[in-house]
Fold each of these.
Amino acid sequence: MSRHAGVRRLIMLRHGQTEWNAADRMQGQMDTDLSELGRRQAKDAARELLSHEAIAILSSDLRRAYDTATALADHTSHEVVRDPRLRETSLGEWEGLTHIEVDAGYPGARQTWRLDPTFTPPGGESKIEVGARALPVVRELFVERTDWPGRTIILVAHGGLIAALTAALLDLPEKNWPVLGGLANTSWVQLSSHGPSIEQPGWRLDVWNAAAKVAPDVL
């Protein structure tokens, strides 16, 4: 028996580029579409990830993530399961603004937001809240997918969500959350659970920002 037979692998893939990404515009939960480049990126990522032979593909219900997930699912027998708990961070009043506009209207706030996971954009949610909303998705999979040990599940979501969920799964102290920087479009994270139970899952970070250049620390 392989020494990895009992290990649950979790891959979290960020969606492809949107026109808003290209323009440094804050998306949050605005339902934007992939750009032409983003669609090509999704197809490229699908080819890279097919070798992992995932047993399930889940996605944020926002179009940019769902369409990225569909590019992967098109090469498998799986249907994409949409889950709104995997949506990006709500950025409240910042959504639709460029980085320059946010910095002009809320001086210093974006830097604070990067460094303090408890900081909440006006009308939005903190990174701590995002991690707390997404964590039950993985815990439910842990219980329900008895075929997960020794295999892989893929979540397709957003940079901020993936960083927050990773920090929550690893149970990082709040002050250490900023060590997980930005993710490039269609880069991915891999974690593996080596523990005996849902109470002691033993999550480890195997890969961060794979198959991509280092991205700016943005959503």
Amino acid sequence: MAADNSQPQAEVMSIASPINFILGSLFIVLLYWHFRPKAPVELPRGPPPTVFTTYTPKTLIEFNGENDRPVYLAVRGRVFDVSPGRNFYGPGGPYENFAGRDASRGLAHQSFDQDMLTKDLSAPLDELKDLDAEQLENLQSWEDRFSEKYLVVGKLVAVNDPEAPSA
């Protein structure tokens, strides 16, 4: 008697089936997209570094925002870069009188008039000795606001001060 080999034969699966080819291709495409060379990232350029400088009224006046220059103003001897507030302190702004100047007296008096500014840029700095308590408080609140919002870029000294930059 012959042996009955009627059991079904196991099919041999080939890994070269169409579905495996599609999945393999998809895997390779995903790997390429993940590891492909990417364009170098370009970081935005920051503003140029600011160096703390000693100013006199004559050298500070140049920083009034005209001709795309920065806008600086001084309060009690500290020079602030108010360029981010150019719409307020620059040319055409409501406080443009203070651009490039010592704004201490005007801020203390809450007055933005020209007569609050020292006309003679060679004169000694305004010592503000005649201000009353309310005016000093006004000035302090302005100075605090500037300190929180703007960078201090230097100090203001009189033209004849030993620390004054030489012309």
